[in-house]
Design goal:
74% helix; globular; binds phenylalanine
């Protein structure tokens, strides 16, 4: 209930949880294949620009709103203005039904692979193992071909873990779990990165392919229209990745900040979360490019031939490289997949939390009941992605949700806060609580960020209309991509339609004395 809203035990606990949400499969699995696909080192430039222009400013905005309104995203937006409540719902609904349903399945794959690692069961033909034996992939996205039982089991395990962590209140659930899991995950990452750096061929590949840039791929000012349009895609992907990786546009950071005590340094927390997250991706990239370099050298093939994009990176390339390591293969495999599972779980719980908090804020139902309902529904929903067509569906859903759903959510968020609520009001609120944010934040939130996001949205749309994403047939893209987003919108509107108890919309309460942290 809002009046005895739970809170973080310490600011460090909040940071661990927020960084836990931000660092996930996206940092290791998604970031690396995005970087590779989009010009290697050159991708780091749009990525950094996206971090500075959109990532950090929106992180500050989300923390500021959640903290000021003391509510989940629907409650916060409803307090700002009733007509914006639907956006407050759209974000956690997309998080829950757009992302978590497939995200939990990918964590499930990692769980399966964690077990396979003990016996290196993937053998030498890791590609055949992943597609034919493990996924038993069907012919097309419309050919479901039944649920893959091992994947369904591991997905169930993921949901049970999320349920156990979210079941308890924020302090005893997510905060405690993050304080335990995050240090373990950082340690595992350091071990994996250092281990990789010492492999033959690793550092060479890092220098030549990761830190070396193909500038032509990011030149949006080129005179050549086709170069410009390709570069546009890279920039859009970088902005999409920043939203995804920082967990922005889902209502998660709004919710997490709503549990912060009154005296909290909002902007400092935003800088810390964003920078740690992106630094983590950058460092994890060394491990990914390094291991591919090692593999390429051992097989005597060029780097470009050894690396593969998409999910294959973690589930085809890594297993192959692990099998080729000179020693301690099993240990490396277990540590790597354990790292992925932990990274995934701490993000998964934040997706569940954003939706849970939205529902409990509005309906006042008991938290454990809501969490249980959400996890059961979530598991049932994610079964779609455990079918033999799962990989196709996941790929389409991910493309539409990240390129449209998130970017659109972020754009509207900036417009509403920037123009209706007034960025300057939020700015003075944030400045009165801690480190002042630069005056340019106001300009970024009102003009630059929404302008750029709108432009990238247009580019994605133009690109998708011009050529079907991933060469999927149009009807499948419409059903699974556009249809999926429309369902999210309908669900969001349905939730927004029911009325609030009037006392809920009153301004935030002042926290208890003992809630205050310095
Ligand atoms: N930020 C997480 C990652 O990079 C994923 C995530 C997305 C988590 C959305 C929560 C919400 O993997």
């Amino acid at each position: 209930m809002t009046h005895n809203r739970s809170s973080w035990k310490s600011n460090a606990g909040f940071l661990f949880a927020a960084v836990g949400s931000a660092i996930g499969l996206g940092n290791i699995w998604r970031f690396s294949y995005m970087a590779h696909q989009h010009g290697g080192g050159a991708f780091l430039v749009p990525y950094l620009v996206a971090l500075i222009i959109a990532g950090i400013p929106i992180m500050i905005l989300e923390y500021g709103i959640g903290h000021r309104e003391k509510g989940s995203s629907p409650l916060s937006f409803a307090r700002i203005g009733g007509r914006f409540e639907w956006l407050g719902w759209w974000m956690p609904v997309v998080a829950m039904f757009g992302i978590m349903l497939y995200y939990s399945v990918v964590i499930g794959w990692c769980v399966n692979y964690l077990f396979y690692a003990f016996k290196l069961s993937w053998g030498t033909d890791t590609q055949g193992f992943f597609f034919k034996q493990f996924l038993q992939i069907s012919e097309s996205a419309s050919d479901f071909g039944g649920v893959r039982v091992p994947i369904a089991f591991s997905t169930l395990l993921v949901w049970v873990l999320c349920w156990m962590i979210c079941f308890r209140d924020i302090r005893h659930g997510i905060e405690r779990a993050s304080m335990i899991f995050m240090p373990i995950m950082f340690l595992l990452t350091i071990i994996i990165v250092l281990w990789t750096l010492f492999l033959d061929g690793a550092s060479d590949a890092i220098l030549k392919h990761y830190l070396h840039a193909d500038w032509s791929k990011i030149n949006i000012f080129s005179m050549d229209a086709s170069v410009r349009s390709e570069a546009g895609k890279v920039w859009t992907a970088a902005f999409g990745q920043i939203f995804f990786t920082l967990s922005l546009g889902f209502g998660i950071m709004i919710t997490y900040a709503s549990y912060l005590p009154d005296k909290s340094n909002i902007s400092k927390n935003a800088y810390i979360t964003s920078i740690i997250n992106c630094l983590y991706s950058f460092i994890a990239g060394f491990a990914v490019f390094g291991i591919v370099g090692f593999m390429a050298q051992s097989q005597g093939v060029p780097f470009e031939e050894a690396i593969k994009g998409g999910p294959q990176l973690a589930f085809v390339i890594y297993p192959k490289a692990i099998a080729m390591l000179p020693s301690f293969n099993v240990l490396f495999g277990v540590l790597f997949f354990l790292m992925l599972v932990i990274a995934g779980i701490t993000s998964g719980v934040s997706l569940v939390e954003a939706f849970t908090c939205s529902v409990t804020d509005k309906f006042d139902w008991p938290r454990n009941l809501v969490v249980t309902l959400i996890c059961v529904t979530g598991f049932l929903g994610s079964l779609v992605f455990t079918t033999r067509a799962g990989l196709y569906l996941l790929d389409i859903a991910d493309h539409f949700i990240t390129n449209y759903g998130l970017v659109l959510g972020g754009l509207l968020e900036c417009m509403i806060i920037g123009w209706v609520f007034k960025a300057s009001k939020l700015q003075s609120y944030i400045n009165s609580r801690g480190t002042s944010i630069p005056a340019i934040w106001n300009v970024l939130i009102r003009y630059t960020t929404p302008g750029l996001l709108g432009y990238f949205l247009y580019l994605s749309l133009a690109g998708d209309l011009d050529k079907n994403y991933g060469d999927y047939p149009t009807d499948q893209l419409i059903i699974y991509g556009v249809g999926w987003m429309l369902i999210c919108l309908v669900v969001a509107l349905a939730f927004a339609f029911s009325t609030w108890k009037p006392e809920k919309l009153k301004r935030r309460h002042q926290p208890e004395e003992d809630d205050l942290l310095v």
